Amino acid sequence: MTSRPTPPTRSTVRRTARKPAWKTALGVFFTLVMLFPVYWMVNVSFTQTRDLRADPPHWFPWDPTFEGYQAVFAQQLPALGTSLLIGLGCVALTVAISAPAGYALALLHLRGGRTLNFLLLVAQMIPAVVMAMGFYAVYNNLGLLNTVGGLIVADSTVAVPFGVLLYTAFMSGIPRELLQAARVDGAGAWRTFRSIVLPVSRNSTLTVALFAFLWAWSDFIFASTLSRNGDLIPITLSIYNYIGNNTTQWNAIMATAVVASVPAAILLVVAQRYVAAGVTAGAVKD
Amino acid sequence: MTTTEAVAAAVAPPGTDRARAARRRRGPAASQWTALGFAAPLLAYLILFYAYPLLRNIDLSVHDYTIRAFVQGNAEFVGFDKYVEVFTSSAFPTALWNTAVFTVVSIVFQYAIGLALAVFFRSGFRLSGLLRAMFLVPWLLPLIVSASTWAWMLNSENGIVNSVLGAFGVEQINWLTSPDTALLSVTIANIWLGVPFNLVILYSGLQNIPGEVYEAASLDGAGPWKQFWSITFPLLRPVSAITILLGLIYTLKVVDVIWIMTTGGPGNASTTLAIWSYREAFGTGQPDFSPAAAVGNLLILIALVFGFLHLQLQRRQEDS
Question: How far apart are CA A178 and CA B320, in angstroms?
């Protein structure tokens, strides 16, 4: 990702040799400033209820409490489960639709492919609040309000255009020889797709899946409009309701927020290999 | 969150189009029916879950839908009445102005901070890769998480921000509850959210500027400041343009952050067009879908203008 076109000449080697430490220090400082709200969330989640309104506030939870986290596991497990279900459903739907579409666009010379690409770009510009209204009206007639399935479909509208564009970009780079060899061996389009194109596109699938999951997991607009009165509400909506109901229990709210951030944290660790590489690979290309 | 689609959108098309054009020249296409078969799920999906809800939305905006009409399905056709109602409403100029301020201020600061950080990280120092990865955190967190954290930090009585300012003798600021600062507060939170996106795209843009250019410049005795203004900034202009336009498109849509922090209040102090639409439809006990849909369609129109600008720009860069 950080590869530059120039080979490491002597001058660059020398330059790297005396990397100034003050820059690292400055970089750490910037990062700390940037991540302060995240630290504060964790700090508050461990703070005793009586200390929440202390002045000056406690900068570090010297006397940590786990009440908030106990509350999370006592009350929020169904919501976390719902979010997990919606996230996984959204991943399955997104991959099932965008991988074959990417194949058709990139390798099967689908007529009208340019127009389709254009429509997908436009689709990404439509505000979610407008989609939410449209879905509300449609779901109201179909009886899909407050259902997990309905929410999965709505959430996937964010990820599907992204998925198709990413698959198309990657699959057009697959060497023709590979596909020709398959054809010589007598493989049809479906066989080629299943046993060559899909396995080769593994990293794209991971990227699409991870983002589809994260977006569905983080969604608030669709959840708060299409699933307001459901029995099964996702964690984002649960946090929102929590804030509305007990404004004094900020340590519990923040504990829920910390737990809700876990997938993002996992993604960040995995992202180092797949996501950042996948997304920036496109950026560096040509 | 939506920022990653942006990256893919910014990044995906050029290679594809070119590759496809090359292939078209090479020979007869495989059976169109096979291609159509593979694309069929997507086409069905786009019709069912994009076109249909959007049509329904237009339908909402030209009828007088109340919650009762919704259930009974006998809303009266009113043509453009709802649009007129929206345009002449006293909330309209406020919402338009707030949208402009929120968007422009957010973009300017996100871009400036993102660019400064990208240049800083480009110089490469120990831990720079790790620190750059850490910068992604705000971008990956669910918006409800970051927005509620900011709301608590900006809390009037118990917020850390006021506590720190108080130590310097500043009097209590009612960040989220005063009409003077509500818009400022949500803008600050939104800038924080958008910096990672700008950093990522601009950093990858910087990677494409060959190192020799800088080496030549530094041989000519150009200092870092001169190098930035005479090399980095001009060469980065195409990437900058796309970053800013995508930023515009995505900032126009923002609902979550503002809604969670202030619900657009107090009064209409932090109400943008997107928030207005959301509030009319879902934010009160009395859903009023028709004006909400009218505002929503206006928002689509604005987003599309910037969207086409973006596509135009991308096409021009592809050609050059």
Answer: 31
Residue spans per domain, chain A? 10-65, 76-284
A17-67 confidence digits (pLDDT tens): 456 888 899 999 999 999 999 999 999 999 888 888 777 778 888 888 888
Task: For residue B57, give the nearest of A53, A130, A168 by CB distance.
Answer: A130
Please indicate whether residue B55 or residue B79 has the higher confidence score (pLDDT).
B55
Handedness of CA B197, B198, B200, B201 (dihedral sign): positive
Considering only CB atoms, B1 lies closest to which of A38, A114, A218, namely A218
CA atoms within 13 A on the CB side of B156: 10
What's the DSSP call for residue A79?
Answer: H
- Class of domain B76-319 (CATH, top level): mainly alpha
Q: Which residues of B touch A153 (CB under 8 A)?
A: 49
Cβ contact B39–A110 (<8 Å) = yes
Q: What percentage of residues in chain A have a pLDDT greater than 90?
A: 35
A76-284 maps to which CATH number? 1.10.3720.10
pLDDT at B274: 93
pLDDT in tens, A198-242: 999 988 898 889 889 988 999 999 999 998 887 788 999 988 888
Task: Note whether A177 contacts B: Cβ–Cβ < 8 A.
Answer: no
- Of B242, B232, B230, the residue nearest B206 (C-alpha): B232
Q: Residue A254: its chain B contacts at CB < 8 A?
A: 148-149, 152
The angle that helices B182-207 and B91-122 make with each other, rounded to 10 degrees, is 40
Query: What does residue B176 show for φ and ψ, rounded to 5 degrees?
Result: -95, -15
Q: Record the pTM.
A: 0.85
Per-residue pLDDT at B11 exceeds 50: no
Tell me which chain A residues have a C-beta less than 8 angstroms from the C-beta of B57: 130, 133-134, 137
Q: What is the dihedral of CA A240, A245, A249, A251, to 10 degrees?
A: -10
The pLDDT, as a whole number, for residue B161 is: 92
List chain B residues with CB under 8 Å of A128: 2, 253, 255
CB A189 within 8 A of CB B29: no
User: So what's the ipTM on this one?
Assistant: 0.83
